[in-house]
Amino acid sequence: MAPSFYETLVERNKQYAETHNPAPTIAEQMALGRVFETTLVITCVDFRLNPDQFLQTKPEDQFLISRNPAGRVGPALQEIMLFDVFLGLKRVIVIHHTDCGGSQFKDADIREAHKSRLPDHSEIDHMVFGAFDEVEQSVRDDLHLLKTSPYVPKRISDQSLGFVYDIKTGLLTPVE
Amino acid sequence: MAPSFYETLVERNKQYAETHNPAPTIAEQMALGRVFETTLVITCVDFRLNPDQFLQTKPEDQFLISRNPAGRVGPALQEIMLFDVFLGLKRVIVIHHTDCGGSQFKDADIREAHKSRLPDHSEIDHMVFGAFDEVEQSVRDDLHLLKTSPYVPKRISDQSLGFVYDIKTGLLTPVE
Fold it and tell me: Nearest CA to CA, how far is A1 from chain B (Å)?
């Protein structure tokens, strides 16, 4: 019998664990006198993206990777507030990508589909799902949001960067 | 002079791109007759976690990786609504981890820190930042939320799974 989804998942994870490199606990890091100085990367959930790979992250970089549909800053504003206070947030990097699903649906259509199932839930009328028209502009819009939101201190928004990731070439292009 | 943060980032990405394996566009996938049947993995932004690595994901798995502080389901409910309609969402996997920062801060402290800076922003009083007391219980709580939220259709919540990832061993332990 073919292995189930669950069995495949657990088996792959066991294989991974054989060469797993254990990370220090937060207490161990602090005992070593290591100060947290984190970078929050906000990018898309798309299964064609592997940000740890295309950024070649190393644990000592302290790159927190936040992922939501399209990689929008709006849903991540509270994370920025949290990490500003809790994990020494230094900067934010916004990375949207070419051929993103975010440009292929409309928020209104998603609302409509759920309203037909849940007609009494009027709060759905106000839901935003992250759709955008043009990928460079969506990065610009999100950088603007970082710079104008009262929730983001200037020392963090001043260090923010924006990029478009090309799924065909694997390259990041900066967005001014 | 040492390379700047920006230069290091771009240089590492260029190195990655040399062996980048281009992914098909959504249009190319659909032309091949490939139906979207996605799995949404919800996990933490922690820099000690590399979910694509510990799950040994393959592009054909169509694992959408959503990451927020602690990997809570609450902030991801709208994503589930989106992917239910837009990308053929089949199941949700919740993965919290040992030594998570989520158990080391209190939502009230984060609110307090921002209220002292933004005293006129009373909406901060209602903000939730994802803190929890115990990691297995937080997975259980989030599985319960999946099963009881009106936004999540039963065919999806019935397929949901929960795990704790151990940062020391790299292993996933299922949570019932």
Answer: 19
- Alpha-carbon distance A164 to nearest alpha carbon in chain B (angstroms): 12
Amino acid identity of A39? T
Superfamily the domain B31-174 falls into: Carbonic anhydrase (3.40.1050.10)
pLDDT tens digit string along B2-28? 889 999 999 999 999 999 999 899 999
Cβ within 8 Å, pair A10-B174? yes
**Residue B26's closest chain A neighbor by CA?**
A99
CATH architecture of A36-104+130-174: 3-Layer(aba) Sandwich (3.40)
A44 appears as a binding residue in the annotation: yes
Closest CA to A60 of A80, A42, A41, A38: A38
Could you tell me if A40 and A79 are in contact, meaning their C-beta atoms sit under 8 angstroms apart? Answer: yes
At residue B176, the 3 state secondary structure works out as: coil
Domain boundaries, chain A: 36-104+130-174
Contact B101, A26 (CB under 8 A): yes
Q: A89-145, pLDDT tens digit by residue?
A: 999 999 999 999 999 999 999 999 999 999 999 999 999 999 999 999 999 999 999
Q: How far apart are CA A83 and CA A12, in angstroms?
A: 32
Cβ–Cβ below 8 Å for A22 and B169: yes
- Which chain A positions have a beta carbon within 8 Å of B105's beta carbon? 82, 85-86
Task: Answer whether A52 sits within 8 Å of B50, measured CB to CB.
Answer: yes
ipTM over 0.90: yes
